[in-house]
Amino acid sequence: MLNFVYIVGGGTFAIKLAKVMTDASIDFEFVDEMSASPLIGKKVHQACNIPNVSAEFIIAISHVEHAQRAIDRLCFSGVNRANILALYYESAANVLEFMLKKDRQKCLYLIENQGGDFKKIEKLFFDNDYKNLYTFEKYCKKIGFYYIGKGGGFRSHVLGLPKELSETFVVKEFSDQPPHPTALKSYHVMSEQSMLESTWPDLVINPHFFECSPAHIPKLTMMHMVYDFLVYKDLVARVMAQPQTHYLFIPSRPSMELHQKICRDYNLQNNVVLIPGGYPRLDNSIARLDDSKLSDKKSEFIIYAPTLSALMTSSETKYTYSIFDAVEFIPAILAAFPDKQIIFRPHPDDLSVIKQGIVTKRANAFRQLLKLCDLEPRCHLDSNQSDYISTFSKARVLITDTSAIAYSFALTTKRPVIFYSADQEKVKQLMPDVAYIKDREKIGYCVDSIEQLINTLTNCFNEDNDIEKIEFCEQVVYHRGSSMQYLIDNIEYILTGKKHPDWWYWLDNC
Q1: What angle do CA 278, 149, 387 make, to 5 degrees?
Q2: DSSP label at 144?
Q3: pLDDT tens, 279-321?
Q4: Run of H or E including 323
Q5: Which one, of 489, 488, 485, 484, lies nearest residue 280 by Cα?
Q6: Do 266 and 272 contact (CB within 8 A), yes or no?
Q7: pTM of this prediction?
Q8: Are 400 and 419 in contact (CB under 8 A)?
């Protein structure tokens, strides 16, 4: 039985795979041309001096060309191609992790006997699921919900839509994660690579920007950000352009303007349809806050919720991240407000990569804050990856940098947000046309020093609600309070391709 592998690669993907191997009690070493040895305590070899060319090798390199070069080097060094398992998507590592936990013996047997073909391994492991996949009502429309990623794939942004639509259509859920508590019975664990080749659905619904389905299948993307801030527009534009017909359920006016601009700036050639739909998760959060009467107007809690940070290493983004400064300003807040408490709510993906042992300067700063939460009784970690409403209900104010949670908090609670940056003027210069940046003071305050932060927090606890900020929060989002019903009422326009008079069609505007 397989008990040792070589992990090929030295980046974050390889480190994540190393965690999977460790949890499965499989020993490993690395093969990488650039990384120094040791890497996370394990030896690193170059392809030309591998001690055992008869072992199993797992490629953890997401760039296809780089992965192929690594395979070529291994084969040149005498490794049998059948002993090289290539994982081209990090999603495949998530599925591999699930298979090892579900049936370790079967998974290892397939790795050793299926010639390095992960798609084949996956189909044989989930053979009953694949056989049942094409057992359906012949004349009924088929809708697939696709979720990718450790943080739940932003599944919460579709709420109960799968169940609602399953009353009329054939609906299945696909994910690289284990079934969630409210999953449909027709739930399939599947990697992104297999999703890209599955022709089962007539429509794919995905709550994030991933290339997760064949181009000819119409796709509906449910936005996970209520506003318009995007650091990686090139990636979003590429994913927007991938399906031949791509519907985007747009939450707000700034989001509509952003995606119209992307269509123009990148001269997209496909049929992009922007639906002024609203933000279902916001509606759900508001309803839960109102119904449960959880909200405490005299709360003594402060949320600190930075944007995704641990994996970022580029100095180009330093003004839009606050994690380094937080190591200093969180203790300063605790000292200045002995009667207040802090809730540290990291981005869900940050918690995942920290557990996997990722080492960057920002990841280490995160570890310092996590340690503070362990030691300081007034500093609490919120590790709930999919639900933030109970945390929102406790807080009087939220501190962030450029996280999407800023607008979610303000629009849900109508309470202030403090935006922290080491240089606010530099942020404005870098993103002069981004509504997220321009509108920040319509929902809160911008500071760039610990002194300003402490003074602004004092004001937030002492002053009454700002009427102008409340009115802004009530007007900027489409179909506030009824967005999911709007989608359900108009789903036939998407399934039939019929034009809706209120939707924006790129091919009519280009």
Answers
A1: 55
A2: E
A3: 998 999 898 887 655 555 567 899 999 987 555 544 545 777 8
A4: helix 323-336
A5: 484
A6: no
A7: 0.84
A8: yes
